[in-house]
C-alpha cells in the first residue's frame, strides 16, 4: 500500500465515506424507504441525498478555499448545515 | 404507486464493483493522496495540506484554461447539436441510400482519436496539406501554427467532422421510432413543416438528444488527443484546454501534487454537470410516462 502514498487525513476521509456507505446499505436493508420529492422537485432516495450532500460539500470547500483560503473549519460548518438541509428538504 | 425497493439485488453488482475498484476507485484514491502531498520522486512524499488546492483554484493559468474549455464546449454543442438534427432530418428513411448514409455517417466515429488529429494536422498544413494549400491559394492568410483564430477554427472544424455523426445517428434513431400515423395526423391537420418538427419530431427526439448532449459535453470537456496532435496546445496557449494543461503539469513539469489537485477539481466539475444532465434526463422520462 506504500505506493498509494496514504496519509492519516486522507485515510480518515475515505474511512468516513466508507462508513457512510455502509450505514446507507444497512439502512436500505433494514429500513427500506420510498423515494420522495423535495424542493428540487426530483425524486430522491437517501443515497441520492448523500450524493448531493457530498458533491455539494466538495464545492462548498472549494468556494471557501477560493474566497477565504485554508483552514476549512468554516467550510465544514457550512457543509454540515447544507447536509442537514439536503436531508430535510431535498 | 408507493412501494419499497429491495436493495439486495445490488449484491449481484459486486463483481463489477471489484473491477471498477481496481481500475478506477483505487487510482482515484491515490490521486487524492497525492493532492495533499509533495514529492521529488523516489516515492518520498511530504505533507502539503490544502496548499495545492489553493494554488490551483486561484491560478490564473487554470482559470484561462477553464475559460477556453468552456468556450470550446459551448461552440461544439452549439454547432453539433443543430447540425446533427438537421442531418438526421434529411437522411433517407429506408432503402439503399439510408444504408449508405448510415455507413458514411458512422465512418468518422470509427477512426482513432490520434489518427483524426494526424489527418487534420497534415490536412491543414500550408506546405503539403490540401486544406492549407487551397485556403492559401484562395488568398486566405491561413496558418494554424501561428494564428490563434486559425488554430481554433481548425480544432473546431475537426471536432465537428469527427463527432457530428454521433448526434445525427442518435437523432436518426429517435426519428425512426416515430410511427407513420403521427405524420398522417399532422397532414390531415395541414400542419406546417415547422409545426411537425416542433410538436412531433423534437419531443420524440428529446430522450436521445439529451443523451447526445451529455455524451458530447463529456467528450468535448475532456478532449485531449486531437487538439494535442494538431496544435500541441498552441500557438502560445491558445488551444491549451484543461486536459492538455493537466498533462503538461503532471508529466511535463512532474508537479504531481498540483496536478492531482487539478484532476480532482476537474473531475468534480464533470461529475456535477453530468449528474445534472442525468437527473434532468431521468425526470423528463418519468414525466413523459
UniProtKB/TrEMBL annotation, chain A:
It comes from the Bacteria. Keywords: Membrane, Transmembrane, Transmembrane helix. The chain crosses the membrane at residues 12-30, 50-67, 73-89. The keyword Membrane applies. It holds the Pfam family DUF2160. InterPro entries: DUF2160_TM. The lineage of its organism: Bacteria, Pseudomonadati, Pseudomonadota, Alphaproteobacteria, Rhodobacterales. This is Predicted small integral membrane protein.
UniProtKB/TrEMBL annotation, chain B:
The chain crosses the membrane at residues 12-36, 70-89, 96-123, 151-175, 207-225, 259-280. GO terms for cellular component: plasma membrane. Residues 66-277 form the ABC transmembrane type-1 domain. InterPro entries: MetI-like, MetI-like_sf, Sugar_ABC_transporter. It is a multi-pass membrane protein. GO terms for biological process: transmembrane transport. This is Carbohydrate ABC transporter membrane protein 1 (CUT1 family). It comes from the Bacteria. It is found in: Cell membrane. Keywords: Membrane, Transmembrane, Transmembrane helix, Transport. Belongs to the binding-protein-dependent transport system permease family.
